[in-house]
Amino acid sequence: MAKKNNVSSTKKKPNWPLLVYLPFGVSLLIAYLSTKISPDHFWPIFIFGYLAEGLLIINTIFLVYYIWKKSPLFLYPAVLLLVGFRINSSLIQFPFRTNLGQEANLKVMSFNMQMFRNGGSDSVKTNRKKLIDLLNQEKPTIACFQEFYSRKKKITDNNDVVSDMLVDSAGYPFVYFEKIITEKRLLQGLCIASKFPIINKGYINFRTTGNFSLNACIFADIQMPQDQVVRVYNLHLESNRIRPQDYYYVDEVTESKENGSYYKLKIIVSRIKKALSKRAKQSEIVAKHIQKVDYPVIVCGDFNDPPCSYPYTTIRGNLNDSFTSRGTLRGATYIGPLPSYRIDNIFSSEKLQIIKHTVLPNKFSDHKAIEAEFYLPGPFQ
Predict the structure, then answer these.
(1) Helix/strand/coil (H, E, C) string of the chain?
(2) Are 253 and 267 in contact (CB under 8 A)?
(3) CA angle at 176 for the pair 173 and 342, rounded to the nearest 5°
(4) Under a CB-based contact definition with an 8 Å cutoff, are residues 331 and 357 in contact?
(5) In angstroms, what CA-CA distances link 45 with 77, 108, 285?
(6) CA angle, 50 as apex, 301 and 262 as ends, to 5°?
(7) From CA 77, how far away is CA 59, in angstroms rounded?
(8) What is the pTM for the complete model shown?
(9) How does the average pLDDT of the chain come out, rounded?
């Protein structure tokens, strides 16, 4: 009888500190993997990417706790956080930065304008003026706009109202406005405005993926001083189209026998799956295009995905992220009804030294404008 008691008393107790940690550690590892696995192959993995910020904080808390308890279990979160260092740094940054001792000579802005309709259709003219005021205040050298909305002065006229405003009222003599949607006098698309000459420009049509898309990417080769050329990409990846503000429901359901929240949820999930697949393919197209460029590049745009995602990682490649280099805290840019994430980015080649990253506190779009300041060797005005 005593022998049986001995056997039962020697049974190992569950390692609760480890068992409690494992779900969070494994989830963060899957979030890291979501940056390498295309949602086109396995779409549910994107969920872990959206949870990455919270998982990073929880894993850091476990690390501190294990160190405080002098437990060897600290190795688990420590190794995991070290493996994912590049991804972690794109999620959260701390404001402890040394001064580079170099003044910027190039400022780039990226801004999703929400078609100037934040506040309703009656606010279009007001928001146009707010944009001009913002540009005159910030004075970016190059400005990239997504969901850029304007109208022709006349149906037969190639000139549009807002492009002329950029030239006449904001001091941008070189404007490339690619009209993705044209309906009589109404125009919507992507725009690059520059204080330096645009010597070449182009349009990357995402519809070549075989899926209908109202999103696209444009680029402009800008002639900087001392015969330097910088290529600027301005992109807008596929939207999830689940918000009331979305104007383009391609697969909108018009008739159904099913009712209730469950059916609505199925519609939302279906739209998200399609958008994830499209963004994955669109990011691959843009990344391949960038790889063929011989001179420095700047990539601006609305990615519609957080940093811990396949599209972000695919397009960034070996480029530097202005937020990772000089940003602070979360740097969230989306301010719509869904949780706020950093879905707008500015990437750049190594030759462009990143001096500053700023998220501007504007209130006339469902996105915040972002700015990156660079030092590019050469005599600038």
Answers:
(1) CHHHHHHHHCCCCCCHHHHHHHHHHHHHHHHHHCCCCCCCCCHHHHHHHHCHHHHHHHHHHHHHHHHHCCCHHHHHHHHHHHHCHHHHHHHCECCCCCCCCCCCCEEEEEEECHHHCCCCHHHHHHHHHHHHHHHHHHCCCEEEEEEEEEEECCCCCCCEHHHHHHHHCCCCCEEEEEEEEEECCEEEEEEEEECCCEEEEEEEEHHHHCCCCCCEEEEEEEEECCCEEEEEEEEECCCCCCCCCCCCCCCCCCCCCCCCHHHHHHHHHHHHHHHHHHHHHHHHHHHHHHHCCCCCEEEEEECCCCCCCHHHHHHHCCCEEHHHHHCCECCCCECCCCCCCCCEEEEECCCCEEEEEEECCCCCCCECCEEEEEECCCCCC
(2) yes
(3) 110
(4) yes
(5) 21, 33, 21
(6) 110
(7) 6
(8) 0.86
(9) 83
pLDDT tens digits, 277-309: 899 999 999 999 999 999 999 999 999 999 999
Query: How crowded is residue 119: how many other Cβ atoms within 10 Å of its Cβ?
Result: 14
Counting every residue written for the chain, the total comes to 381
Which amino acid makes up residue 177?
F
pLDDT in tens, 146-157: 988 877 665 555
